[in-house]
Amino acid sequence: MTVRIHTLHLLNFAKRRHSRPELSEIEVSTIACILNLRSRAPGFSKSLVAGRLTNGSEGQLFAYRYYLSAHLTRSVYICFLAYASTVAMGQSSGAQPVSQAQSTTATSGALPVYIEEFFLSEAVRSEENGELQLTLSSTAFRGRGSVMDGSSAGLDIEYGLTDRLQLGLEVPYGIQSRPTSEIPTSWSTADLSVLYQFIRGNHPFALSGALGVNAPLTARGNWSYEPELMIAKAFGTLQIHTSVIPELGGGDSSLEYNLAAVRPLSHHFFPTLEFNGRWNAGVNSFYVTPGIYKHLPNRLEMGLAMPMGMGRFSSPVGAVFKMTWEIGGDKDD
Prior knowledge:
The structure is a single chain. The chain is 27% helix and 39% strand. It has 2 domains: 2-94, no CATH class; 105-327, monomeric porin ompg (Porin, Beta Barrel). The protein is α+β, with helices and mostly antiparallel strands. It is globular. Residues 1-11, 13-21 and 30-107 have low confidence and may be disordered. Strand 1 (132-141) and strand 2 form a beta hairpin.
């Protein structure tokens, strides 16, 4: 009887503590397990009485320890019940974990924007209405006469006219370039582009299309056109992006095709993995590009990647650095 009273008092306290009017199935089952132990209570009392009457101090000590062990078991059981109730309340009424919330968003609404840019690939996204994005980039490759050989820096400006329509201006600067490289010579060209995101959600996939025009800035530049097709799909918190970008005109045609993946980690880190293919002037090159981005305050984003060549005409290793800064638009990072 004493055990039941203590149990009910503790359970009533737990209910008042969590402001819950009813008990869950696990709590009811636990209460039943606790109260079923009361069948041992007569044995405890009998052992205690027998110890006092027949076994003297040793019997009393044995029975007393036996009784306390059973009582402690009940207390631990009740504490576990209270803890389980607390965890259940926190999980049901609190905020969702980041990965679960992002997964829900990815499957029910617009595709979440984890990063603004991949390193050598294109991300399926567009700037929001009135949002301006500035991107500084730098690349360095060396060896084997591939289309990526050389070093360059660039400034990329993107502005959202609507939530789907975006204008872009990219001004690359070729620090070092080779005849087979796609890197321009000095300030020789500027890339003007228009992008439209046809499907923003994840069903069946996110889809964007763009058209870029490379305008010559000097006599060393050539006119060329770059139609782009970009598709992305989310699998839980993992996103897969693919893009195909041919370049037409301007002498030799070229083709760029990419497959990239990104997944969020804790502390605002976003590791990426890309497979990048390039074809230019009859030369094919392939790269596997692991990288990582870090989100910083004031809507800054910085990342570093290390492309590794996988073919005979691919540079053995390279380095890519990118930093983006967003201004205006929706500020809910």
